[in-house]
Amino acid sequence: MPVTDFATLALAPALLSTLQELNYQQMTPIQQQSLPAILAGKDVIAQAQTGSGKTAAFALGMLSALQVKRFRIQGLVLCPTRELAEQVAKELRTLGRSIHNIKVLTLCGGVPSKHQILSLEHGAHFIVGTPGRVLDHLQQQRLDLSELRMLVLDEADRMLDMGFLDEVARIAAAMPAKRQTLLFSATYPDKIEQLAASLMQQPVRVSVSSSQQESSITQQFYALDNSTREQAVMLVLQQLQPASCVVFCNTKRVTQQLADALQQQGFSAKALHGDLEQKDRDQTLLQFANKSARILVATDVAARGLDISELDLVINAELAHDTDTHTHRIGRTGRAGAKGLAVTLADNKDDYKLSLLQDTLSDAIQLQPLPPLSLLEQAPAKAEMVTLQIQGGKKQKLRPGDIVGALTRDQQIAFEDVGKIQLHDLWAYVAVKRSAAKKALQILNHDKMKGLNFRAWQL
């Protein structure tokens, strides 16, 4: 049996069975290096890029150490963003689905505390959250970490970049000193070393080089010359025609300006940055994930924790401020062995950044001319799907099956024309093929579900 097989680990049969059902057979390099130490109860510092399988590594460690009959908070995962926290909680629940009565609770900012307070009163085994909100609950004495056995810091470098060092230290002070601490980070600057020294006991350090990941990513560099960045992004998009693309900018202002310019020219684009209201941010991420928007124009911080499994293209509209950020950006394409493409736009002011980047690359950077201007005469491709919002959700006992059933009844709409469905307490979202959107709206606004009438509209 190969040493990369999960069955070689000291995991409970129920966990191994779940891994098999999920088709998790071979460990990724970071899982192979970190899991034996994690399962042995050691503190671990793991350096690995997004998409390397790190979430499953620490999730399996948490689930293996869980005493499910002991209804106390036993594990805490701190994440830089709400999106990443929700992604981690989802993975924990999925991997732990064979364990009865397991409770995973997310505590994140950007949403009212009311539901979180009620959930905390009922207890939990694992908490996944952002440092600010977790600390808030701690200070209000709603959260008891006195029996915590494992602390995980996910994407620790970004938490420090976002100024969460003080919050992390104060949260750690409320835990038992005798615990297991796992730290995952894409980069390893000095401040991570200092954080590890303050929180960990003789940590095992493992690292997976990004070269293996980069080998599946082709990088292209274009000279801006006399073109504006906005025009250059449009030319690249028209030439490559990606079904899904993230365009990175360095500031919120440039991000919004570029998204607006793309929309005005008919591109299916959305902006993602820190100035958005939480509702708008959630709807933007939803539309990108369900293929109702082809292009996401984002800042680095806002894009952290995006759960994107298939991304055709990354465009650096502006060069990242440092090489680690550049590596992290392009690592969002070419995941799980798939081929990826990253395009970077540069002008003569970027010479210094390009020279720093060149030191990390095996191939010489060749600036090529932009695609021909004539491409802008063609109409941009529309998104494959559209998102419909329904004024009703879990509180009205709506289920995904009710929505699918209403749309496909009497073959009014083909089953394959219905995409992802997301249910919230008071809202539901369904993606449908663009060609079926008009008919779907008609059905949702005139037919009953659960014996009730609901209002629906297109986002």
Short descriptors:
3 domains, hydrolase activity, Rossmann fold, 19% strand, nucleotide-binding, RNA helicase activity, Alpha-Beta Plaits, single chain, 459 residues, RNA_helicase_DEAD_Q_motif, 20 strands, seven-stranded parallel beta sheet, alpha/beta, hydrolase, 36% helix
Give the biggest sheet.
Answer: 7 strands, parallel
What's the helix count?
A: 18
- The assigned structural class equals alpha/beta
Strand content: 15-25%
CATH class group of the largest domain: Alpha Beta
Mind telling me which CATH architecture of the largest domain this is? 3-Layer(aba) Sandwich
The figure for the number of domains is: 3
**Strand order of the main beta sheet, please?**
3-4-2-5-6-1-7
Mean pLDDT across all amino acids: 89
Q: What name goes with the CATH superfamily of the largest domain?
A: P-loop containing nucleotide triphosphate hydrolases
DSSP E strands, number: 20
The shape is: globular
Distance between the termini: 51 Å
Rg, Cα atoms, Å: 23 Å
**CATH topology-level fold name of the largest domain:** Rossmann fold
> Unreliable stretches, pLDDT < 50, 5 or more residues?
none
The helicity comes to: 25-40%
Domain DEAD-box RNA helicase Q: 4-32
GO molecular function: hydrolase activity; RNA helicase activity
InterPro entries: DbpA/CsdA_RNA-bd_dom, DEAD/DEAH_box_helicase_dom, DEAD/DEAH_RhlB, DEAD_box_RNA_helicase, Helicase_ATP-bd, Helicase_C-like, Nucleotide-bd_a/b_plait_sf, P-loop_NTPase
Protein name: ATP-dependent RNA helicase DbpA
